[in-house]
Every structure is written in structure tokens, then in C-alpha cells.
Amino acid sequence: MILAPIIATRALRKIYPGSKPGRSLFGGGLALPGAPGMTPRSPTDVVALEGLDLEVAAGEFFGLLGPNGAGKTTTLDILTTRTRPTSGTALIDGADVVRESVRVKQRIGVVPQRPNPDRSLTAIENLLFHAAYFGISKSVALTRARELLAMLGIATRETARVPELSGGQQQRLMIARALIHQPSVLFLDEPTVGLDPQARLALWEILRKLHAEGRTIVMTTHYMEEADRLCDRLAIVDHGRLLAIDTPANLKARAPGGTLLELTLDGDAGGCAGPAGHLPGVLRVETSRELLRVFARRGEEVIAQLIKIVDQAGRTVTNIHLAPPSLETLFISLTGRKLE
Amino acid sequence: MTAASPDVVAPGRVFLALLRRDIHVARRELAAFLVRTTLQPILFVVVFGYLLPRMGFVQKGYTSALLPGILGISLALSSIQSVALPMVTDFGWTREIEDRLLAPVPVYLIAIEKVVAGVLQGFIAALFVLPIARLIMGPIESLSIQHFGTVFLVIVLGSASFSALGLLLGTMISPQQIGLMFGVIIAPMIFFGCAYYPWRGLDAVPVMKYAVLINPLVYVAEGMRGALTPDLPHMPLRYVTGALALLTTLFLTLGMRSFEKRAIG
Ligand SMILES: Nc1ncnc2c1ncn2[C@@H]1O[C@H](COP(=O)(O)OP(=O)(O)OP(=O)(O)O)[C@@H](O)[C@H]1O
Ligand SMILES: [Mg+2]
Fold it and tell me: What is the pTM of this model?
């Protein structure tokens, strides 16, 4: 429980109505307003968030981890007023994201998962107009825009139209746009996807600096290293539920002891689970289709015996992946069922 | 004003910034915009206002009935398209509008701003077409520009109703349906909009005379007739303004609701 959290969600749920093709004018008639707070009505409905409770302290660098479709983007969309929750509440700095969306928008900066710059404008115009939407005077905006473009290494693309920017340059522009009005809470949805290694490191530096200035940062990522290095605290979510939330160090300590050995077989791995579980030093075994996943102390010694077991089961190992205890092994052990 | 002050910016200021953005973009694309929205009405003027009268297929006086209608069509095409087309791609594919949805104002204000920008563009299209049409058609019987105030009023109300309709269409149509929008909504609207013939002419087909009254173009065309050729038969101005105000309110209410639904999924 955090005292005076700057971000707080309570029992946040989001159900997307199932897609009926062409749900618009000439398709299935007008979309009628769905009744909020209802349980899924149709089997095609997608439950993206299933009662999410999150609290983030002011000034915290918070990471959101989870496999594809876990509900990370949905969470960020709700917190940034761009999607309405089906039920539950979310507050930013005490302002409700639905009822007081203007106050919320005043405080936040957003880097969306997919870059969506204003394609009718040039790079710098994107920043200048965005600043204008926040009531920032032209001269202040111009100084800041130039600084940001330089900081993100796209100063030379200042007057380029958006379609002339590369994917990574557009992504950098999105980061600049999220910063131009100097928001106190920054939301970044997989901000380093599409960036080259140099730009990724540069962004890390920028984020660290913003964090040091006392801004609150919420970031989703699929890179464990990134989460580990940058974030004060991490939440691991899947199927719209919170699976774990703690500091990276504490989470790593919770990782199932030992090394993760992941063997890919040429067929179903089900028959190997029993014998593998009896090997000395093996802590846990999971299988899903052709994947045999074993957590073991002294992993190197177990490998040979695992291969033997696979042989006896009449299968062949096509690939082996080894990972020491880490965020990654915890992530996989928490969300592993996802692969089924 | 410095940085991250948590005070909320005056909505009027944000509104003007949003409008400035649309004007900036429209100005940059002015030529393409004018071609897209006024070429068709101008070509119509060439055929029906110049060629056919010269060939003797239509009476000379036809041009007086045609000119107000042509202005109405230009207004309709420009206002509807300038609001609806970018919105369809925005909501359907690019989500470009998101940087405006994040502006610290209620979402409905962004919808209203789009309509205001549409009114401005309708205005420009109408002012562009009027002299060109007059030039092509030659002198027009009973044309009078004395009622400029009325012309102004009809243009504003007319483009407001078309822009609001553009908002509604732009939020309801998917990118794949744009072609359909022209075929199923805009084309019938133009042909049954009393643009090429006065409403009075429909006395000949009474069912149609009343069926077309849901069409905003009817009022714009008739209003223009009342303003530009006041001596010829036309619908009384108070019906014109009343109906346009009503249709604008209707389209705007529905359009804003639809916009919010698309904007905040
Ligand atoms: N607009 C939408 N309409 C219908 N379903 C949606 C919509 N957006 C997301 N979903 C569904 O909601 C669930 C959560 O999606 P979300 O985008 O939040 O996942 P995510 O954790 O961000 O995944 P990723 O790592 O792939 O970005 C998924 O099952 C997805 O299919
Ligand atoms: Mg996502």
C-alpha cells in the first residue's frame, strides 16, 4: 500500500466487444452504446483486464511486463483517457480518468505503442502544435522542440514531413512529443521497440534523467534487461490480472531457484515430464506441446540426463535454451501457460 | 507560461490552437482541396450553364436556377469531405488524431473544432466557385448581390449542417466504405438536393417534393436562390434558416456522440 499514490486503479476491468465484421454504417447498423459494467455478453467478447489493482508512487519508475495480449496497452490506454474502462476506477493524481479527463490529460505525456504522428505536418510542427494544444507559447515551444529533437538525435530531420521519417525516427518523434509539455507523469508503451541499440541507450539516459527530475514514469516493455535496469518496481500481468508486483531485486529472488532449461522436441513432450521430475536437482517441470521446461539446480549437469530421457521417449531434441535465474525465468514461470 | 503547471489551460486557447492546425494544413493543401471539391460543380456549370444553353437544349434562364444550386453543391462537397475524409482514415487506420485527443480539453470540443474548420473550408469553396461560375455562364438574369448578408447567412448555416453531417459520416464509416459513402449518400443528396432545379419545380412530383425535405442541400440551394435571385420563386428564408439550424443541431448532436465513442473506445 502506497501513501498518496499518483496513479491508482481499483478493480479495473475492460471488455472489448467481439468484432462483428463491418460494425459501422453500411455493415451491421449503428453501433449502439454498450451497457457498461456488464459481464461478457457474447462469446466473442474479449476480456482484456480482469480486476486490476495497481498503485504507483509519485516519482516512481514503474514497469509493466506481460506477454502479448496481457492487457498492458489496455491499461495504459485507460490511464491516459484514451479508452473507457468497462468497470472499476483509475485515478491520476487524484483525478478520475473518465470524469476528470481534462485534468488528467493536463498532467500526462504519452508514447503510444504504434507511432501516430500527425502526417500532415513536419517533425517540428508536430511538436509545436502539440505544445500549442497545451497552451505553451510559440517561443518557449520552439526552444524546447529544438532541444528535444537534438536530444533524440533527429535535429537534422526538423523540417521533414512525417512520411519521410524512418520508423525509428517516428518513434523518437513520439517520445519528443510526449515530453514537449513537460508532463509530470509519463506513459511509454514499448518505447524502445524499433530503436537501434544506440538510440535505445540514449532513451534510457533520457528516461533516467527525467526520473531523477522527479517525474513519474510508467513503461511497458518486453525487454527484461531494460525493465531490470530502469524500473524501481515492476508488475507482471497476464490475462488482465496482476501476477506479481515488486522491485526487480525482490522479483529475481522469487524466481524459481535454479536454471531454466527449455528443450524443444520434434514432437509432444508430455511423456518426458514424469521421468524428468525425478532427476536429482530438478525443482519443477512443465510441458506444453513440444516444449519441455525444467527448472533445476546445477542445470549443466541435468542436460545430459534430460537428453537421455527424451531419447528414451522416442523423441529428438531440436533446440536447447538455458537461462540462469532471472526476471526472465520468473516471467516464464508466471506466465508460461500462455504458450498453450 | 512555463512548463508543467498543473493548472488547466483555457479551453478557448486550446480550441484556437486546434483550429490553427487545421487551417495550416488546409492552406498547404489548398490547391488539391479546391480541385477535389469544386472541379465537379464547375464542370457541371460548363455543361449545363454554358454548352447546353448555347446549343439551345436548355432555356437561357436556366442558369439563374443553376447558379445557387452549384454553390450549394460546392459547399456540400467541401464541408462534408474536409471533415469526413481525414476522420475516416484517422479513426480507421492511423489514429493520427490522437495527439489532439490528448489535448487538455473535453473530447467533444475537438469534434466541434472539426466542424468549425469544415465551415471555413466550405466558405472558401463557395467563394471560389461563385465568380468562376458567373464567368462561365455569362450574365445571369435577375442575379443580384445586394443581399450579401443573406448569402453569408445561408453559406454559414449550410456549411455548418454539411460539416456536422461530415462529422457524423466520418465517425461512422470505415475506410473501405468511402467509395460507398459517395455513391449511397453524397450522390443522391446532390441529385435530389434541388440544386439543378428549383424546389418549386417538384410540384410536378409531389411525393418527391416532400421526401427531399430531409436533405440539407435543398435548403441551401433554395436559400441561395432567395439570396442571389430573389425575384425568382424560392422557399421562404425563414424555413431555410429554421430547417438548416435544426439539421445542424441534429447532425452535430449525433456526430459528437459518435465521435466520442470512436475517440474513447
Ligand atoms: N480495440 C480492441 N478491440 C478488441 N479487442 C482488443 C482491442 N484492443 C485490445 N484487444 C484485446 O485485448 C487484449 C489485451 O490487449 P492489449 O493490447 O492490452 O495487450 P498488450 O499487453 O499490450 O499486448 P502486446 O504486448 O502485444 O502489446 C488482447 O486479447 C487483445 O486482443
Ligand atoms: Mg501493447
Answer: 0.86
